[in-house]
Amino acid sequence: MERRILAANWKMNPQSAEEAVELARELDRLLAPLPLTKLLFPPFVFLPLLEVRNLTIGAQNVFWEEKGAYTGEVSPPMLKSVGAEWVLVGHSERRNILGERDEDLKRKAEAALKNGLKVVFCVGEKLKDREAGRHFEVIRKQLEYVPKREGVVIAYEPVWAIGTGKNATPEQIGEMHAFIKEIFNTKVLYGGSVKGHNAKELASTEGVDGFLVGGASLKPSEFYKIGEALAE
């Protein structure tokens, strides 16, 4: 049986290199016995500093060109040179706060894959779309920009359930994961306020192949509980 995936997205945390190194070391130690594929997405500046044996390192973002006059951007070859093997593309915060377009996300994913990086491609609907019954339409449109190639994993993250303490119900999650898998033959992770207390129920939901975890991944003991539930 293929392993499920536990992915930690640290976002813009922690606030120092020392904290990042210590946190990565602790997660590496705690998660070692769990039979999962364990991914860690720290901020760019920490990528070359983290020495882990049981976690696979990824980047939270990537640019679509390999080099050039693109101030502030980071290319796929740069990421590979500091040990990154995965990248996140299309996280809701980059879509909704930084205005990234579907076309841009496709270019990023294609560039990453071309350079031998694997991709967690994030999709998700806003609350207004869910309440209006447009959630399948929104997800279908976002999926049109995901490269149908080996090395791509989808993460479903309903925007209204990220960092809000709210959760999509197991029925809603299972329904959406089934919908995505009709279009893509790949693993589908769930991301949206996954915590230690709800991880077991979410992990047992049909079609959930893993988790993309934000805030709880900064708390080693809680993140371990999430991994433990996923591994059962």
Key attributes of the depicted protein:
232 residues; alpha/beta; TIM Barrel; eight-stranded parallel sheet; 8 strands; 16% strand; globular
Folded structure, characterized:
- This protein has helices spanning 17-31, 76-81, 92-96, 102-114, 127-131, 135-143, 170-183, 199-203, 220-231, and strands at residues 5-9, 37-41, 56-59, 86-89, 118-123, 152-156, 188-190, 210-213.
- It is an alpha/beta fold and 232 residues long.
- The protein has a single domain, classed as Alpha-Beta Barrel (TIM Barrel).
- An eight-stranded parallel sheet has the order 7-6-5-4-3-2-1-8, covered by helices on one side.
- α7 links the parallel β6 and β7.
- The longest helix has 15 residues, at 17-31.
- The two termini are 13 Å apart.
- The mean pLDDT is 96.
Offer a concise description of the structure.
The protein has 232 residues and is α/β, with parallel strands linked by helices.
